[in-house]
Amino acid sequence: MAVSWRSWLANEGVKHLCLLVWLSLNVLLFWKTFLLYNQGPEYHYLHQMLGLGLCLSRASASVLNLNCSLILLPMCRTLLAYLRGSQKVTSRRTRRLLDKSRTFHITCGVTICIFSGVHVAAHLVNALNFSVNYSEDFVELNAARYRDEDPRKLLFTTVPGLTGVCMVVVLFLMITASTYAIR
Fold it and tell me: Residue 110: which residues within 8 A CB-CB, separation 6 or more?
């Protein structure tokens, strides 16, 4: 039994439109931030020192910020109950979309995991580049204190490095706790 185009559009169209808007927003945010740090004159010397690691770390961070702000909205029972009880939400289609909010929560979670991997990898490359490309001319831009400083020292002895490691550990624990076998 084939599903008609009109039936599919009525049942699944709004969900896919929302997903397309969300995906477009992520791509646009990543691209705009990447270009800002790649071509912005105020980041010229930092870009010379770090290369694409700077662009990737900042662009993935902006996508992470967006998705971390959105991940809890679909699981907020009070908000969902308020929207379902609202006089403006009367169509069955809108109610069905609200019922599928868990899928959006999972989609945001997977996106956070992927871009966290990109973000961590870019910061590891940045730590190495800070050490290798140390410049006496721009000491205030450089996280390393001298040329060829051990990048692990930058990661584990600085406040940003330690908080980043702690956040990755917390993310790993959250991913582990959300698996079906653990729940």
Answer: none
CA distance 127 to 150: 9
**CB distance 15 to 98 below 8 Å:** no
Q: Tell me: pLDDT of 1 over 60.
A: no
Residue of 47, 42, 45 whose CA lies nearest to 140: 45
pTM summary value: 0.84
C-alpha to C-alpha distance for 177 and 183, rounded to whole angstroms: 7
Distance of CA 164 to the CA centre of its chain: 14
Distance between CA atoms of residues 66 and 34, nearest Å = 15
Angstrom distance (rounded) from CA 7 to CA 1: 12
Query: The tokens of 174 are what?
Result: 């959250």
Angle at 131 between CA 60 and CA 146, to 5 degrees: 135
